[in-house]
Amino acid sequence: MSYSTFNRKKFDSMKEPMFFGENVNVARYDQQKHPIFEKLIEKQLSFFWRPEEVDLSNDRKDFQRLEEHEQHIFLSNLKYQTLLDSVQGRSPNVALLPIVSLPELETWIETWSFSETIHSRSYTHIIRNIVNDPTLIFDDIVTNEEITKRADSVSKYYDNLIEMVNLYNTMGFGTFNVPGKGDVEITMPKLKKALYLTVASVNVLEAVRFYVSFACSFGFAERTLMEGNAKIIKLIARDEALHLTGTQHMMNLMASGKDDPEMAIIAEECKDDVRNIFIEAAEQEKEWATYLFKDGSMIGLNAQILGQYVEYITNVRMQAVGLDTHFETKHNPIPWINAWLVSDNVQVAPQEAEISSYLVGQTDNSLDDSDFDDFDL
Amino acid sequence: MTLTSKQDISQKKEQMHRVLLGKKQILVTEDEPLLVQLERAGIHVEYQCREGYCSSCSIKLLWGNVSYPFEPLAWVQSGYLLACCAIVKSDIEIQFL
Ligand code: FES
Ligand SMILES: [Fe+2]
Ligand SMILES: [Fe+2]
Question: GO terms for molecular function, please (chain A) (predicted)?
């Protein structure tokens, strides 16, 4: 019941479920119940990068030359991503660490959250480079209605789980009156349901919500604008692709019943809820695209194309967690985005030469237009 | 040298498999993952990492066998394959989302 930072019980952590078993005591990685989380940790560590390695001096000039509606697109996306990573930099730790029961999963959660703090730091790096007063941008995140609407959706499942786990850790099972909220019933199935829905909503956050913003960043870069930003977004996208695999594994392990039989029943019960989380997020992202382009589109991208992309990527992500796809869109309307989303060490994209420059420091930030002749939008 | 390359060719021939995709039929070898061979045949496949960790290249496997030289980090749903790292081991039929 109550959380201990070093559980004194002797137990076999190989027999614990992922969550709501014993609190982890010894951080050991020589044996793992689910080796996938150890592999994710190693992969994430191999991805380590620092935003300061990316030279943004050209982005400052580019930004000043953008049309006003393009600046709106660029800044709004930055604000939205800042919100998402602010949430992700803390919430897996706050919500999941008190209830995790496997050392490899505990450390994956910490490693995952840590990488989100790099993302947050990179937004400060970007914003500092393009505007004189970053405070104006950061302050707007908590007041801009379009952003705060989304803040509610991405934090509500986390907040609910955190509140329930707090009650459980202090009071145990039962029905408790929470001021301003009324009666909250704490049972193990209810806790597990709150957890399952949280993991699903985090999967949607990382697997769907980021992608409109990614597409815009790469859309600018295809026109050789804001290329430093695109390099950073590429690194963020690589991390996010790993994070979404983490939550897909958690959801699929839960649904399989192999980790915790009771969780399989809950996953089955929650199927429609999870479908709705995906669909609702997709609709919100389509609205977001409309908001971005309210004063004008950018070359190669508009609200309709981005809407189709959201539907397409949502289908891909739903299938990955064993759900039937929801949207009619069967094709990626912006296939060029994949060349930007691919890992650095895999040779596909025409911009390969340019991308690798971040590795050797801040050297080559002045390619001329002819280097990008191969691009088609 | 000539001898070796002849051997290569005959070996490759033995490893050719048919991939059925709707009304299309693509011949593939066991030398490379399915994704690159589909791309070479002019078929667009969704991808992201091309390293087996993001599951974006997941395709329905209706029948037939594939194998993975390295266990992918992404979860592979039963009845699906990950095109970026799957080696086709028999004639197969696949279907996109
Ligand atoms: S492209 Fe990422 S798993 Fe295949
Ligand atoms: Fe992130
Ligand atoms: Fe993430």
Answer: ribonucleoside-diphosphate reductase activity, thioredoxin disulfide as acceptor
